[in-house]
Specification:
single chain; 354 residues; eubacterium ventriosum atcc fold; Type Iii Antifreeze Protein Isoform Hplc 12; 4 domains; 5-stranded antiparallel sheet; 23 strands; 35% strand
């Protein structure tokens, strides 16, 4: 054998040896290895789901997946035996004793379904916004659990509403991103538009002042609520003009400004004219709020006059209109000093005034 032939043979041997070592290293890296937990999106568990480096056997189905949204476990020994039956050997179990398998799903809540029906009925045949609709279903609505591939939002494909009976019939459709037939859900019941209504939390007697704890806001059917509804925030601090039962809607006419003067209450009367200011004790003949005109008795003169309520226990008596008398010749007038007199509550003739 020549030297040249010897060199060629040696190079070939080295190449074959290097290739063998490379294949050995590749095989060492690609050893099938068990996974401790897996998540599947379909109803089948495949070899490639439970082990790494499954190679051509990855798509072979070996188990049925758990129910949607649930997790099951498989003993490692059972998996290894199943893999051996499919000629997948030398699996590294990594000292794993069992593998948990979870089936992914998409959950559509009851609230999502109700919202979709509300949007389908929104402003249909005189109805209002979806948020204002009170829906009652003929059958209980339950959470919907679908395969993870159903990624579409619930969309209406058929909507019927009878405004006279307030009845609806809605069919929703949820599409899949895999081209599978969409899931359909048919729902029926009644839909009523509601509005916020201020109602009492207890029986409120006439003339009581309303406190924050006495009233709440609830949604009531629009057709039953009526008009002239009181605003809760504005109603606090007002006075009930009539008896209000617990749970009864409160209307604007039921309330008024609080009385600052009560009937038979002792009050202070103010009588003012230019240059003179008088005060005297009196007795209110009527109840009244600020700005109301009420009858009041002057306790000194025992006469009943009218005055305007200006504050708690305070009534202002209006001055009579001045009369102008014609004179044949003008009479010069002397300057008049302004006098303020306060008349005490006495029975003396000098203290009597109207």
């Amino acid at each position: 054998m020549t030297i040249r032939s010897t060199l060629i043979a040696a190079a070939t041997l080295m190449a074959l040896t290097a290739n063998a070592f490379g294949q050995s290293a590749d095989n060492a890296i690609a050893v099938p290895a068990l996974r401790p937990s897996v998540t599947v999106t379909g109803d089948i568990v495949r070899i490639g789901d439970v082990i790494d480096n499954a190679g051509p056997a990855a798509q072979i189905a070996i188990y049925r997946a758990p129910d949607l949204g649930t997790t099951g476990t498989l003993p490692a020994e059972q998996i290894v035996a199943t893999l051996r039956n499919h000629r997948v050997i030398g699996v590294d179990t990594r000292d794993i004793r069992e593998v948990s398998v979870t089936r992914a799903s998409r959950v559509i809540s009851v609230r999502d379904i109700e919202r979709a029906v509300g949007l389908a009925l929104e402003r249909r045949n005189g109805l209002g916004d979806a948020d204002d609709l009170a829906l009652t279903f003929e059958r209980d609505v339950r959470m919907l659990q679908l395969d993870a591939s159903f990624t579409g939002e619930p969309s209406p494909v058929a909507v019927r509403f009878d405004p006279r009976a307030a009845r609806f019939d809605v069919t929703l459709e949820i599409s899949s991103n895999t081209g599978a037939a969409p899931t359909r859900l048919r729902l029926s019941g009644t839909a009523v538009e509601t509005i916020p209504v201020t109602v009492s939390t207890r029986n409120i007697e006439r003339n009581e002042l309303l406190k924050a704890a006495d009233i709440v806001t609830e949604r009531r059917p629009k057709t039953e609520a009526g008009g002239d509804l009181a605003n809760r925030d504005r109603a606090i601090g007002l006075q009930a003009r009539k008896q209000i039962r617990a749970g009864q809607p409160i209307r604007g006419a039921d309330l008024g400004k609080p009385d600052l003067v009560q009937r038979d209450q002792s009050v202070t009367l103010f009588f003012e004219v230019p240059g003179i200011s008088l005060t005297v004790r009196g007795k209110a003949m009527d109840a009244g709020a600020e700005g109301d005109v009420v009858n009041v008795m002057n306790l000194q003169s025992k006469r009943v006059v009218q005055g305007t309520v200006t504050g708690p226990g305070q009534i202002v008596i209006a001055a009579p209109a001045a009369r102008v008398v014609a004179s044949a010749a003008p009479v010069p007038s002397a300057p008049v000093a302004e006098v303020t007199a306060t008349i005490p509550d006495s029975s003396s003739a000098a203290a009597k005034t109207e």
